[in-house]
Amino acid sequence: GPGCAAAVADARPRAAEAGSPDALAAAISAFEGCPLKRMGARQPVFSRGKPDAGVMLIGEGPGADEDQRGQPFVGKAGQLLDRMLAAIDMKDEVFITNTVFWRPPGNRTPTLEEQMVCAPFVERAIALVRPRLLVLVGGASAKFMLKADEGILKLRGQWRDWRPAEGGQSYPALPMLHPAYLLRQPREKAKAWQDLLSLSERLA
């Protein structure tokens, strides 16, 4: 709606002015346009990892542990993600963020509007980090970033191109299963392992 368009218009110049990931984190903190900020989140959760990483992972949104600690992927799912990355020697070689920066109430999936309002900051993060490729972690991230209708089980493991809204350089993007899903469905770990190997080969 009009509120969303106004918030996106407010986000764009704030994102564009940020000259580093730290400056971007400060811009996100000061931004009032995302409705999630007023729904009980304790603090913004922007990123963790290497500011000039070759790989940028984009998840869905913060959960309870992330909301408490102010960093993405630090709960059980995040610990599994770190173990997965460690298995391909990538644990300290990534930059990790999400499609939204405040915890959705009850850990629900973020709405399209919430993701759209945060998108200028996500795009700016990509432009600042300049990774070689993107990994879209879970369905809510993959569907939003790729403007795709398919579910994650169809999308996972297939390299796609991601392009910024305003045009410009495209990035290879790999959708993969969310570690929270793997904790519930351990037999799907084989698929996640295939995706990690695909990532590792692409980097090599």
Outline of the structure:
The protein is built from nine helices and six strands; from the N terminus they run ααββααβαβααββαα.
Structure keywords:
204 residues, alpha/beta, six-stranded mixed β-sheet, 9 helices, 47% helix, globular
Can you walk me through this structure?
The protein is of the alpha/beta class and 204 residues long. It has 9 helices and 6 strands. A hairpin with an 8-residue loop joins strand 5 and strand 6.
Topology diagram in text:
Layout: H1 2-17, H2 21-30, E1 48-49, E2 55-59, H3 64-69, H4 76-87, E3 94-98, H5 112-129, E4 133-137, H6 139-146, H7 152-155, E5 160-162, E6 171-176, H8 179-184, H9 189-203
Helix content: 40-55%
Query: Can you count the beta strands?
Result: 6
- What sort of overall outline do the alpha carbons produce when their principal axes are compared? globular
Distance between the termini: 44 Å
Count of DSSP H/I helices: 9
Largest sheet: 6 strands, mixed
Strand order of the largest sheet: 1-3-2-4-6-5
Q: Assembly state here?
A: single chain
- SSE series: HHEEHHEHEHHEEHH
Determine Rg (CA atoms, Å).
16 Å
User: What fraction strand?
Assistant: 5-15%
Low-confidence stretches: none
Structural class call reads alpha/beta
User: Mean of residue pLDDT?
Assistant: 95
